[in-house]
Specification:
With 299 residues, the chain is α+β, with helices and mostly antiparallel strands. It has two helices and 17 strands. It is elongated and about 65 Å long.
């Protein structure tokens, strides 16, 4: 009788363990699938026509005329097949850039041909994309410094891109943190890869625990938190200039979810033609964040 009891007890115990493992496994699979889908969408965005992988040039404009085309005699040399020797000029005067095309070159803005037009920069809220065949370009403004960013929609780098190596998914890096608002919004200074600085607004600080130690991060934004951070994996395993991370706004109790498994490389890790912000001193973490994307390429 006692033997039968213990056999029954062991049977029930095994069922409980199997049931518990199954629930845990299902939860892990669901989370891993969620992150794989997130990465898949990120790859699609990078390969899109307005993604980072098809950039072929970034040129800062000088005052006056800036000729552009395939000839090396131009101020701006545009690489690509069947590009005219001289496509036209970008005229920079009093902070305003005017595109003037050569009469035999059919430059388009959307579906319309243009011969002369004042260009709007990417900070205007309504970016203009000009095109000639598969070449596309727009005006960028970096603290009053005006430049042209060119893309090749047939660029092999975008076509052949498979993704970015990531750390194995680790739920320990999905953390429920606390957001503590500042009494007043704080203007923070953010360095950039250009050696300049920009300013943005932080509304509070995030406090979180990892490996039994507390850390803080200072995010940008209010409705959605944007975090530029550095950690001790930088240069060796991850991009040397830090990584990016988004988080939803805190709930009514000040809770905010930080998922470092969704840490990703800034555009400058993928192309030398991007202009990226860098982590400011509040966001240097003295710990290895072995989660999210690893470094990519040589940038």
């Amino acid at each position: 009788m006692i033997k039968q009891f213990w056999q029954f007890f062991h049977f029930i115990l095994i069922l409980i363990l199997i049931s518990g493992c199954k629930k845990q496994t299902d939860a892990d699979f669901k989370y891993i699938n969620e992150l794989n889908e997130w990465h898949k969408k990120r790859v699609e965005r990078l390969k899109a026509d307005d993604g980072w992988l098809n950039l072929i040039g970034r040129f800062w404009l000088k005052k006056g005329d800036n000729s552009f085309g395939s000839s090396d005699k131009n101020d701006i040399v545009v690489s690509g097949k069947n590009i005219p020797d001289v496509m036209g000029i970008f005229l920079l005067k009093d902070g305003i850039v005017t595109l003037i095309s050569n009469k035999d070159v059919n430059i388009k803005l959307g579906d319309s041909s243009v011969t002369e037009i004042v260009m709007r920069d990417d900070l205007s809220g309504d970016i203009q994309y000009f095109s000639y065949n598969n070449i596309r370009w727009n005006l960028i403004n970096r603290d009053g410094k005006m430049g042209i960013r060119f893309r090749d929609l047939n660029n092999e780098a975008a076509k052949n891109f498979k993704g970015i190596e990531r750390y194995p998914v680790d739920k320990e890096y999905k953390i429920t943190a606390k957001f503590k608002p500042y009494p007043q919004p704080k203007i923070i200074t953010i360095p950039t890869v250009l050696g300049t600085t920009t300013q943005d607004t932080s509304y509070g600080k995030i406090f979180f625990n990892l490996f039994d130690k507390e850390y803080t991060l200072e995010p940008i934004g209010k409705d959605r938190l944007f975090i530029i951070f550095a950690d001790e994996t930088n240069s060796d395993e991850t991009y040397g200039a830090g990584r990016f991370l988004y988080s939803d706004a805190p709930d009514s109790l000040g809770n905010v979810i930080i998922d470092f498994n969704k840490s990703y490389n800034p555009p400058c890790a993928l192309t030398k033609y991007a202009t990226c912000p860098l982590p400011h001193k509040e966001n240097f973490l003295s710990v290895k964040i072995e989660a999210g994307e690893k470094k990519y390429g040589e940038h």
